[in-house]
Amino acid sequence: LSPRPLAGRRLLITAGPTFEAIDPVRGITNLSSGKMGFAIARAAREAGAEVTLVAGPVHLDTPRGVRRIDVRSALQMLEAVMPLADEHDVFVATAAVADWRPASLSAHKIKKDGKKIAPTFELSENPDILAAVSARSRERGAPYCVGFAAESEQLERHAREKLLRKRVPLIIGNLGPATFGRDDNSLLLVDAQGATPLPVDGQATDKLTLARLLMADLADRLASRPLS
Ligand code: C5P
């Protein structure tokens, strides 16, 4: 077994939440810690890949040897990812991208008006970064796209729905309860053939161990694709 099964591959990974500004001091975000994406970046590098990590606002150190690009919003993440997608063989979308952003950004801090009337905000839908890269991949034959699914119920059904909607070859479901911010998890790999737990015994394990198992599995999936 090669200790560097991803040598010669270039991986582009998104991680963390996005932050959608309302005004200069407030915004909409979520509880993603970025730990899974950072663990995947580290494991991919250890496995010999060249790794670019596009990270939303997180408090994590950059894994050694990984090129990191920091962004804040979904639009910035899309802008960073799209030109990079063509230079990479694999795209792993672990980021918990905010589904919506405030339709307009207030230049100044929104103040209470003294009449006890709370403001309302119109929202716009954010672009689906994974679906955009997948569409590009269908034109070029690369990158190989991997998505994630964090669901509270009916994981396999929802994961398969994402596989079809985003037209990607692999969706990874988080089986562990309340995985956001936690260190232990187990995964369900859903592809056109079926669903496989990782680790095979389904036991929750730390995210770095999972990421290493996942990179070994990914290397097998890529075996039929020539190095570019
Ligand atoms: O769209 P949904 O949240 O159901 O799918 C999750 C998967 O899609 C994750 O891989 C996530 O990183 C990716 N995604 C994305 N851009 C979005 C929403 C989700 O890349 N706007």
UniProtKB/TrEMBL annotation:
It catalyses: N-[(R)-4-phosphopantothenoyl]-L-cysteine + H(+) = (R)-4'-phosphopantetheine + CO2; (R)-4'-phosphopantothenate + L-cysteine + CTP = N-[(R)-4-phosphopantothenoyl]-L-cysteine + CMP + diphosphate + H(+). Its cofactor is Mg(2+); FMN. Its EC number is 4.1.1.36, 6.3.2.5. It comes from the Bacteria. One of its GO terms (cellular component) is phosphopantothenoylcysteine decarboxylase complex. CTP binds at D99, K109, P127, D128, I129, L130, F148, K162, K166. Binds 1 FMN per subunit. GO terms for molecular function: FMN binding; metal ion binding; phosphopantothenate--cysteine ligase activity; phosphopantothenoylcysteine decarboxylase activity. Residues 6-219 form the DNA/pantothenate metabolism flavoprotein C-terminal domain. Keywords: Decarboxylase, Flavoprotein, FMN, Ligase, Lyase, Magnesium, Metal-binding, Multifunctional enzyme. Catalyzes two steps in the biosynthesis of coenzyme A. In the first step cysteine is conjugated to 4'-phosphopantothenate to form 4-phosphopantothenoylcysteine, in the latter compound is decarboxylated to form 4'-phosphopantotheine. Catalyzes two sequential steps in the biosynthesis of coenzyme A. In the first step cysteine is conjugated to 4'-phosphopantothenate to form 4-phosphopantothenoylcysteine. In the second step the latter compound is decarboxylated to form 4'-phosphopantotheine. This is Coenzyme A biosynthesis bifunctional protein CoaBC. It comes from Sphaerotilus hippei. The chain holds residues 191 to 418 of 425 of the full protein.
